[in-house]
Structure formats: C-alpha cells, structure tokens
Amino acid sequence: MNSFDGIIEFVAVAESHGFSSAAKQLGCSTSHVSRQVSRLEERLGVALLARSTRQVNLTDAGQLYYQQCRGLVNGLQQASESLNTQQITLSGTLRVSAAGAFAEEHVAPALMAFAKSYPDLTIEMDFNSRMVNFIEDGIDFAIRYGALKDSGLVARKLVDRPMAAVASQDYLTRYGEPTHPSQLKQHSCIIANNDHWLFEKEGNTINTRVHGRWKSNNSNAVISACEEGLGIAYMPKSSLAKGLDSGSLVPILQDFWGKGNSSWIVYQNQRFLPVRARLAIDYLIHYFSDWDSLHK
C-alpha cells in the first residue's frame, strides 16, 4: 500500500502550484510534502513536476497522472466525510471574509444560527471588501457580490439580488420624479461602486452615466444620504428593504429596474476545505434557498 504514499501531497502541489502552499493546505511541513512527492516520483520512475525557483508546473506525465489521481483523492475524502458528518462535533475557527449590508444584515445572522449548533466552534468574520489570499490570510470562504474575475476560485451562488431605484419624498418634492433613466442626468445621484447604472426595459439594457455630490463605498452611508434627501440611489432591493417598508425611501423608475447581480460564496479549493467550512457553506446555501421567492 505504500505505493500510494505521496499521491495526496502530489495532488495538493498540482492544485496549489507550490510546495509551501500545499503544505499549508494539508497542515504539514513543506519538507514533508517535497519528500513525499520525490519518493512518489522515484517509485514511478518519472518526473511529475518541473521545479524552478519561482513556480512548480506539471510535466506532461504529471498532468496525465494528476487527472487520474484527482478523482481518486476526492472520492476518498468524500467517503470519509460521509461517515463522519452525522456525528461530528465542530471545533476550531471558521474564518469568513465578507462586506456590505447583505453580509452584515443577513449572512452574519445566518452564521450566528449555525454557530449555536456547535458550541466548540469559533467564527471570525472580517468585514472587508479587499481581495483576500485564502491561503496566506487563513480565510475559509468569502461572501462576494457581482461578477467574479478569478476563475481559479470555486464559486457557489447564494442569492440573486435585483436592483431598485429610490429617493426620499423630500428630494422628489424639491426636484421632481424622473420617469426615464435618461432624466437622471438632470438629477443628483448617490454613487456607490460606479457611476454607470444599468437599467432594463423589455429585455434591452439602458446604460446611464450619473453624477452627484455624495459618493461612498458603504451601503449604509448611501442609504442614509438618500434618506436625508441628498439624491437618488440605485442598489440591490434587499439592501433598501427597511427604508421601503418604513416609507423613508420611495421607489422610482420601477419599470426600468435591472436584474442586478448575485452574491456568491467563494473559496480556494473544494477538496482542502475543512469540514467546518463545508458544513457552514451547505448551511448557508440551504438557509438562503427560498431567498429569491421572498425578495423579488
């Protein structure tokens, strides 16, 4: 059976493109990973990895071997977890990166409910929109909104978040209510992430560039500025729910609201996720499973 030694380490190196990053994922030393892979190559009589001072790449033989081994390693881990998850007691620290009102008002309470079932589990939430290095920063998964650029990450859609345009009644009384997105050029708009707002009408996209005297990358600050009459806001409707329900925000341009983007759970590599992260992700997916029907 020792002919299988080193396969897990080899797959980790192949997927993380380095010995040190593979060691961090596996929770062992870099020297152990290097030694196990070298022994595997000796037994097979072929070089699986092309090593340099800057990076590690698969050889042609390594690529072929990786394709065969990847499914085997995943199957072994899934088999083990299927026996353990029913009686597992989660411990350690779950680290989550998130940002925005959706994460603060909805994801955090969901994770609090998850934590109640596991008294030995610690959860750390970092509310920061910066791009994280999952391995170096020790982040298990992140909650992100919008289009995802890094194709090397695994992403699972959490919810769709359609848009809504709003203003305070005071603002509309003073400056009038626009009836078409093109009229926003004559209005003060509260800018969050960008000054190009995408509206939709009968399947057609209307790209409108806006301007205003209040800009902020914090959704709560945008909402407060809108309630204070500083301009028109265009955000995911779920972020505006409290203001719409209370009447402090008035919906406008409803025939043109866009479909918006989605919020995602993003992580580095499915196979190296600790069980606590896997279960938390599955919990969040189930928790928000009826979100779209409740927040249209």
From TrEMBL:
This is LysR family transcriptional regulator. It holds the Pfam family HTH_1. It comes from the Bacteria. Residues 10-59 form the HTH lysR-type domain. Keywords: DNA-binding, Transcription, Transcription regulation. Gene3D superfamilies: 3.40.190.290, Winged helix-like DNA-binding domain superfamily/Winged helix DNA-binding domain (1.10.10.10). Belongs to the LysR transcriptional regulatory family. PANTHER family: HTH-TYPE TRANSCRIPTIONAL ACTIVATOR TTDR-RELATED, HTH-TYPE TRANSCRIPTIONAL REGULATOR. It comes from Photobacterium angustum. InterPro entries: LysR-type_TF_proteobact-type, LysR_HTH_N, LysR_subst-bd, WH-like_DNA-bd_sf, WH_DNA-bd_sf.
